Amino acid sequence: MLRINRLLIPGVDKKLLVRDAARLMPDVSRRRFLAGGASLGALTLLTGCDVVDGASAETLLAKVSKFNDAVQAAIFNPNTLAPTFSESDITRPFPFNAYYALDQAPTIDGGDWKLEVSGLVQNNKSWTLQELTQLPEVSQITRHVCVEGWSAIGQWSGVRLRDFLELIGADTKANYVWFRCADDYTSPIDMPTALHPQTQMTFKFGGEMLPRAYGYPMKIRIPTKLGFKNPKYVVSMEVTNDYKGGYWEDQGYNSFSGL
Amino acid sequence: MATTLTDPAPATPALAETGAVLQPLWVRVMHWINAAALLAMIMSGWQIYNAAPLFDFQFSRTITLGGWLGGGLLWHFAAMWVLVINGVLYVMLGFATGRFRRRLWPITLSGVVSDLSQAVRLRLSHDDLGRYNSVQKLLYVGVLLVGLVSVASGLAIWKPVQFQTLTSLLGGYDAARYVHFFAMSAIVAFSAIHIVLAALVPKALRAMIIGR
What we know:
- The complex is a heterodimer of chains A (259) and B (212).
- Helix content of chain A is 25%, strand content 21%.
- Chain A has 7 helices and 10 strands.
- Chain A has helices at residues 2-8, 14-24, 40-47, 54-75, 129-133, 161-167, 191-194; strands spanning 114-119, 127-128, 138-145, 151-160, 176-181, 186-190, 200-205, 208-209, 219-221, 234-240.
- In chain A, the strands form 2 sheets. A 5-stranded mixed beta sheet of chain A has the order 2-1-10-5-6.
- In chain A, a hairpin with a 4-residue loop joins strand 5 (176-181) and strand 6.
- Chain B folds into 2 domains: 23-105, no CATH class; 107-120 and 129-211, no CATH class.
- In chain B, helix 3 runs antiparallel to helix 4.
- At the A-B interface, helix 3 and helix 4 of A face helix 3, helix 4 and helix 9 of B.
- Chain B: Its main location: membrane.
């Protein structure tokens, strides 16, 4: 825990951080969902199919994962609030986390930046940072839980996504809000989660302007989702009924990934 | 062996010698499904552990399942269903058929102490496979309870918002990760002893495969 956190602190051990990130990523040639041969017999028993054929195992696992999406959507209670914490619980420094080093993170000029809005909305005008930060602000101190297992507590402030979706006349019966980021990261969020009262368009961290490390100028903060469902450097949002996939979702992370 | 079926039984036979079924079919089937699901859960769990280790070590890639974090998670959350369905049915049948009451009860402190002292001197008899000694009873009941803790702590770290009461009962998100790890460790330790003893008493293994 401590060791990992030290690697994730901005400006420290960048090479190690990248090496670590690379280790967690799938092999370039082919995703390796299967480990050594010793376990394959038992796995055949488990799944009832020939798991030596990796493709069929992956198909089966993907199907179970879709089933798990549905189970998690059923478990999700839109009225359950994520636990909140006091200022003394805040993790300092809060880790930087991405699949690249901090110096490769997008550098965005807040003056030029605009949030594009598209899809099933009544008003698809773009929004400047100044316009967005004039909307009513809310704040939360919640736990960010990474898919890797570590977690950190931070304070985020910004505009409730629900309020913004209502403001632009979004079809709140649509299936997803799909985000695209300046680093080409993408992620779809199911509508019930997008409408959750703690789901936030975040412009401030710890009361200060959102630093580059945490997604300047806008991150989507969702305390009811794993960290990778909290996109940073967001440049566009689309309200849609289509599942458009996402950076990690396409590689095998469960798409709902609720907490 | 076919001969055991036709041989006349001794006056006061141990169950194993009568040719009676020691392990009914449902126990055998569920036992091996459980073994496969547990193996997948543990090996994929080690893969997940490696992404953010709790301690200063990682599990070798040769004994992890999934190839990378995402694959480990997919295996873990797939095997989970097999384990939960099998486990719930097993516990229900264990109570309904009276097997738990007959085989795992009662457990007395004096029985455990005396059987344990015999066990460490390697004097404990395994002749009657139909009757567990106190140490066996304690271990089997213990591992069932550890299984419960492992499921509870697993739910606590999988859904720390929806099941936040459970998570806080376990001391919070970070503490629940440790509880889950130690429950896994206890199950692995139990399995190691279990497998060694099964290897030392081949007829117990045979009974778990063919029933007799």
